[in-house]
Amino acid sequence: MRRHLLAALAAGLAAIAVEGAAAKSLEVVGPDGQGATMTAADLAGLPRQQVKLDKRGKAATYEGPSLGAIAARIGAASGKAIHGAELATVIRVTGADGYQVVLGLAETDPATRREHVILADRADGAPLAGDGPFRLVVGGDLRPARSARNVARIEILRLSTRNTDAPALRHR
Ligand SMILES: Nc1nc2c(c(=O)[nH]1)N[C@H]1C(S)=C(S)[C@@H](COP(=O)(O)O)O[C@H]1N2
Ligand SMILES: [Mo]
Hey, whose CA ends up nearest to atom 6 of ligand 1? Predict the structure, then answer.
Protein backbone atom coordinates (compact mmCIF):
# COMPACT_ATOMS: atom_id res chain seq x y z
CA MET A 1 0.00 0.00 0.00
CA ARG A 2 2.73 2.38 1.08
CA ARG A 3 4.73 1.43 -1.99
CA HIS A 4 1.78 2.23 -4.25
CA LEU A 5 1.40 5.60 -2.62
CA LEU A 6 5.09 6.32 -3.13
CA ALA A 7 4.90 5.19 -6.77
CA ALA A 8 1.88 7.43 -7.34
CA LEU A 9 3.67 10.33 -5.68
CA ALA A 10 6.78 9.77 -7.82
CA ALA A 11 4.67 9.63 -11.00
CA GLY A 12 2.92 12.84 -9.95
CA LEU A 13 6.20 14.62 -9.32
CA ALA A 14 7.56 13.41 -12.67
CA ALA A 15 4.47 14.77 -14.41
CA ILE A 16 4.90 18.12 -12.67
CA ALA A 17 8.58 18.20 -13.66
CA VAL A 18 7.68 17.53 -17.31
CA GLU A 19 5.00 20.21 -17.16
CA GLY A 20 7.47 22.65 -15.65
CA ALA A 21 10.00 21.94 -18.39
CA ALA A 22 7.35 22.36 -21.09
CA ALA A 23 6.22 25.66 -19.59
CA LYS A 24 9.83 26.87 -19.71
CA SER A 25 9.66 27.44 -23.42
CA LEU A 26 8.88 30.31 -25.70
CA GLU A 27 7.73 30.94 -29.21
CA VAL A 28 10.34 32.38 -31.56
CA VAL A 29 9.98 33.82 -35.04
CA GLY A 30 13.04 34.33 -37.21
CA PRO A 31 13.72 37.14 -39.73
CA ASP A 32 12.08 35.24 -42.59
CA GLY A 33 8.95 34.53 -40.58
CA GLN A 34 9.90 30.97 -39.67
CA GLY A 35 8.39 30.01 -36.30
CA ALA A 36 9.65 27.54 -33.71
CA THR A 37 9.54 26.73 -30.03
CA MET A 38 12.66 27.33 -28.00
CA THR A 39 13.00 25.25 -24.85
CA ALA A 40 15.07 25.71 -21.71
CA ALA A 41 17.45 23.09 -23.17
CA ASP A 42 17.92 25.22 -26.30
CA LEU A 43 18.71 28.23 -24.13
CA ALA A 44 21.08 26.30 -21.85
CA GLY A 45 23.90 26.32 -24.41
CA LEU A 46 23.89 30.09 -24.95
CA PRO A 47 26.24 32.58 -23.28
CA ARG A 48 24.80 33.96 -20.03
CA GLN A 49 25.23 37.34 -18.42
CA GLN A 50 24.24 39.13 -15.25
CA VAL A 51 22.43 42.45 -15.39
CA LYS A 52 21.24 44.69 -12.56
CA LEU A 53 17.68 45.95 -12.77
CA ASP A 54 16.69 48.96 -10.73
CA LYS A 55 13.09 48.65 -9.60
CA ARG A 56 12.27 52.01 -8.06
CA GLY A 57 15.35 52.07 -5.86
CA LYS A 58 15.32 48.31 -5.19
CA ALA A 59 18.07 46.67 -7.24
CA ALA A 60 18.01 42.99 -8.21
CA THR A 61 20.64 41.03 -10.15
CA TYR A 62 19.09 39.12 -13.02
CA GLU A 63 20.85 36.40 -14.99
CA GLY A 64 20.15 34.61 -18.23
CA PRO A 65 21.08 34.05 -21.87
CA SER A 66 22.02 37.01 -24.05
CA LEU A 67 19.10 38.21 -26.20
CA GLY A 68 21.54 38.81 -29.06
CA ALA A 69 22.63 35.17 -28.87
CA ILE A 70 18.99 34.05 -28.94
CA ALA A 71 18.39 36.29 -31.96
CA ALA A 72 21.45 34.83 -33.71
CA ARG A 73 20.25 31.30 -32.93
CA ILE A 74 16.99 32.01 -34.77
CA GLY A 75 18.69 33.51 -37.81
CA ALA A 76 19.36 37.19 -37.05
CA ALA A 77 22.69 38.79 -37.89
CA SER A 78 25.26 39.20 -35.12
CA GLY A 79 28.53 41.04 -34.50
CA LYS A 80 30.02 42.76 -37.55
CA ALA A 81 27.20 41.41 -39.74
CA ILE A 82 24.91 43.93 -38.00
CA HIS A 83 25.39 46.78 -40.47
CA GLY A 84 23.55 48.31 -43.41
CA ALA A 85 19.98 47.05 -43.64
CA GLU A 86 20.44 45.00 -40.45
CA LEU A 87 20.53 48.24 -38.46
CA ALA A 88 16.82 48.44 -39.22
CA THR A 89 16.17 44.95 -37.86
CA VAL A 90 14.32 44.89 -34.55
CA ILE A 91 13.44 42.32 -31.92
CA ARG A 92 9.91 42.35 -30.54
CA VAL A 93 9.56 40.71 -27.14
CA THR A 94 6.00 39.91 -26.05
CA GLY A 95 4.76 38.94 -22.60
CA ALA A 96 2.02 36.39 -21.92
CA ASP A 97 -0.32 39.34 -21.27
CA GLY A 98 0.46 40.88 -24.67
CA TYR A 99 2.86 43.54 -23.32
CA GLN A 100 5.29 44.36 -26.13
CA VAL A 101 8.80 45.79 -26.09
CA VAL A 102 10.90 46.50 -29.17
CA LEU A 103 14.69 46.75 -29.27
CA GLY A 104 16.99 47.39 -32.20
CA LEU A 105 19.02 44.26 -33.01
CA ALA A 106 22.26 46.28 -32.66
CA GLU A 107 21.27 47.24 -29.10
CA THR A 108 21.47 43.58 -28.12
CA ASP A 109 24.91 42.99 -29.64
CA PRO A 110 27.70 42.70 -27.04
CA ALA A 111 30.20 43.94 -29.65
CA THR A 112 28.15 47.12 -30.12
CA ARG A 113 27.02 48.03 -26.60
CA ARG A 114 28.78 47.62 -23.26
CA GLU A 115 25.53 47.00 -21.35
CA HIS A 116 24.02 43.55 -21.83
CA VAL A 117 20.46 42.66 -22.78
CA ILE A 118 19.32 39.29 -21.45
CA LEU A 119 16.34 36.99 -21.28
CA ALA A 120 16.61 36.45 -17.54
CA ASP A 121 15.60 33.15 -15.97
CA ARG A 122 17.04 33.86 -12.51
CA ALA A 123 17.05 36.80 -10.11
CA ASP A 124 19.33 37.10 -7.09
CA GLY A 125 20.30 33.44 -7.58
CA ALA A 126 16.79 31.97 -7.68
CA PRO A 127 14.49 31.03 -10.58
CA LEU A 128 11.95 33.75 -11.38
CA ALA A 129 8.67 33.25 -9.58
CA GLY A 130 5.63 35.19 -10.81
CA ASP A 131 7.58 37.21 -13.40
CA GLY A 132 8.96 34.12 -15.11
CA PRO A 133 9.96 31.81 -16.41
CA PHE A 134 11.62 34.54 -18.53
CA ARG A 135 11.97 38.28 -18.11
CA LEU A 136 13.64 40.76 -20.48
CA VAL A 137 16.29 42.82 -18.69
CA VAL A 138 17.95 45.73 -20.51
CA GLY A 139 21.24 46.75 -18.88
CA GLY A 140 21.59 50.49 -18.38
CA ASP A 141 17.87 51.24 -18.26
CA LEU A 142 17.03 53.67 -15.45
CA ARG A 143 13.52 52.30 -15.00
CA PRO A 144 12.04 48.82 -15.55
CA ALA A 145 9.36 49.66 -18.17
CA ARG A 146 11.18 47.69 -20.92
CA SER A 147 11.63 44.73 -18.63
CA ALA A 148 8.82 42.57 -20.05
CA ARG A 149 7.74 39.89 -17.57
CA ASN A 150 6.51 36.40 -18.51
CA VAL A 151 8.10 36.56 -21.98
CA ALA A 152 6.19 34.24 -24.29
CA ARG A 153 7.42 35.27 -27.75
CA ILE A 154 10.52 36.71 -29.41
CA GLU A 155 10.34 37.87 -33.02
CA ILE A 156 12.94 39.22 -35.42
CA LEU A 157 11.47 41.83 -37.74
CA ARG A 158 13.31 43.39 -40.66
CA LEU A 159 12.03 46.94 -41.08
CA SER A 160 14.50 48.00 -43.77
CA THR A 161 12.83 49.26 -46.93
CA ARG A 162 14.29 50.36 -50.22
CA ASN A 163 12.45 53.60 -50.65
CA THR A 164 12.25 54.22 -54.39
CA ASP A 165 10.46 57.54 -53.76
CA ALA A 166 13.49 58.92 -51.99
CA PRO A 167 16.57 57.48 -53.69
CA ALA A 168 18.82 60.00 -51.94
CA LEU A 169 17.87 58.36 -48.64
CA ARG A 170 18.72 54.85 -49.80
CA HIS A 171 21.08 53.10 -47.44
CA ARG A 172 24.38 51.79 -48.71
N1 LIG B 1 4.38 41.37 -19.20
C2 LIG B 1 4.48 42.59 -18.66
N3 LIG B 1 5.69 43.05 -18.32
C4 LIG B 1 5.83 44.29 -17.76
C5 LIG B 1 4.71 45.12 -17.58
C6 LIG B 1 3.43 44.62 -17.97
O7 LIG B 1 2.38 45.26 -17.85
N8 LIG B 1 3.36 43.35 -18.49
N9 LIG B 1 4.87 46.39 -17.04
C10 LIG B 1 6.22 46.98 -17.13
C11 LIG B 1 6.39 48.15 -16.30
S12 LIG B 1 5.66 49.56 -16.86
C13 LIG B 1 7.16 48.14 -15.17
S14 LIG B 1 7.45 49.55 -14.29
C15 LIG B 1 7.79 46.89 -14.67
C16 LIG B 1 7.47 46.63 -13.22
O17 LIG B 1 8.18 45.51 -12.80
P18 LIG B 1 8.12 45.03 -11.28
O19 LIG B 1 6.71 44.65 -11.00
O20 LIG B 1 9.04 43.85 -11.19
O21 LIG B 1 8.58 46.17 -10.43
O22 LIG B 1 7.40 45.75 -15.41
C23 LIG B 1 7.33 45.97 -16.80
N24 LIG B 1 7.07 44.70 -17.43
MO1 LIG C 1 6.09 51.16 -15.34
Answer: 99
